[in-house]
From TrEMBL:
<dbReference type="InterPro" id="IPR007085">
    <property type="entry name" value="DNA/pantothenate-metab_flavo_C"/>
</dbReference>
<protein>
    <submittedName>
        <fullName>OLC1v1017519C1</fullName>
    </submittedName>
</protein>
<dbReference type="GO" id="GO:0004632">
    <property type="term" value="F:phosphopantothenate--cysteine ligase activity"/>
</dbReference>
<keyword id="KW-0173">Coenzyme A biosynthesis</keyword>
<feature type="domain" description="DNA/pantothenate metabolism flavoprotein C-terminal">
    <location>
        <begin position="52"/>
        <end position="99"/>
    </location>
</feature>
<dbReference type="GO" id="GO:0015937">
    <property type="term" value="P:coenzyme A biosynthetic process"/>
</dbReference>
<comment type="pathway">
    <text>Cofactor biosynthesis; coenzyme A biosynthesis; CoA from (R)-pantothenate: step 2/5.</text>
</comment>
<dbReference type="InterPro" id="IPR035929">
    <property type="entry name" value="CoaB-like_sf"/>
</dbReference>
<comment type="similarity">
    <text>Belongs to the PPC synthetase family.</text>
</comment>
<feature type="domain" description="DNA/pantothenate metabolism flavoprotein C-terminal">
    <location>
        <begin position="171"/>
        <end position="298"/>
    </location>
</feature>
<dbReference type="Pfam" id="PF04127">
    <property type="entry name" value="DFP"/>
</dbReference>
Amino acid sequence: MDDDGQIETSLAEIQSFFDSAPPLKDREGIITKVQDFIHKNSSSSGIGKAARVVCVTSGGTTVPLEQRCVRYIDNFSSGRRGAASTEYFLEAGYSVIFLYRSGTCQPYCSTLPDDPFLNCFDASDDTAIQVHPSFAKEVKRAIKENRAAVLGGRLLKLSFTTIFEYLQMLQLIATSMNTLGPSAMFYLAAAVSDFYVPWETMNVHKIQSGSGPLDISLAQVPKMISALRREWAPLTFCISFKLETDSKILLEKARRALKKNKVHLVVANELSTRKEEVIVVAENEEIVVRRNQSKAEAEVERPLVALLVDRHSAYIKHSGS
Ligand code: PMT
């Protein structure tokens, strides 16, 4: 049984999940983008220096209830953690594959208003649209930093919506990143569905409400993290997250996830305090990481990423690459 009481995931179950999933749109195009990104970053890192590439996953996966989807079940995640962490990894010299849920937070945009985004702009003189002076600095920074990272070939953004898309993309990124060995890292902050409706048993058309209460049976999504560690990218440095709403069970579950999934670190967080503090659980220690409360704009991701970069350096050194 795993940390959530599931029976241990077998590779056959994982294969059967993929076999029955709807094919990923533009699969070949995505493979080409990922391979080109990895190739460019590994060849530009210099002789004897391994390129550090991290895959940051961010946002929640959806579970469609209909093949021509009108309704779906969602996993909560604003994508703030993943977006902020991406900025700090880039600052630390990493190249980042940002695998994010479409419509969630983007790197360098956290200080822009999202409700509504149009508050940033002014169109009062009828001739030209201007950035509102109170947001000018933030808009300039978002455009500049984002463009520099993407055009400079250090940030590759790939979006998903459903659990089927997310897991297929994660698999193809992982198998490509394994070629980088220990200098590659996974930072799995996305909130991933545990239950889903198998594609072949799903209604094709919109479920009709006239037939009375809805009774749906959900199958369990195999825990893909074990496949990532054992099969797809066993050489890489892997960090998973554990989210709970009950602080009393959080640490115990994080410790069990560390052991069972054989990841290098688990970042434990509680929903209501996740922006203030996290606990990094390792084999022999547990480190509380807090944001600097004396600065309003300080984010917990800054010290968190700094700690993970240190641990990753030690892992690379230990692996002899
Ligand atoms: O986005 P924000 O609003 O900033 O919030 C950030 C966050 C709270 C979403 C983030 O910090 C976080 O905790 N993300 C992980 C949430 C989650 O899915 O936790 P879990 O306990 O259900 O899963 C634990 C691990 O198992 C995850 O790393 C996940 O990648 C993995 N998993 C989950 C389901 C599944 N079928 N297969 C998996 O491998």
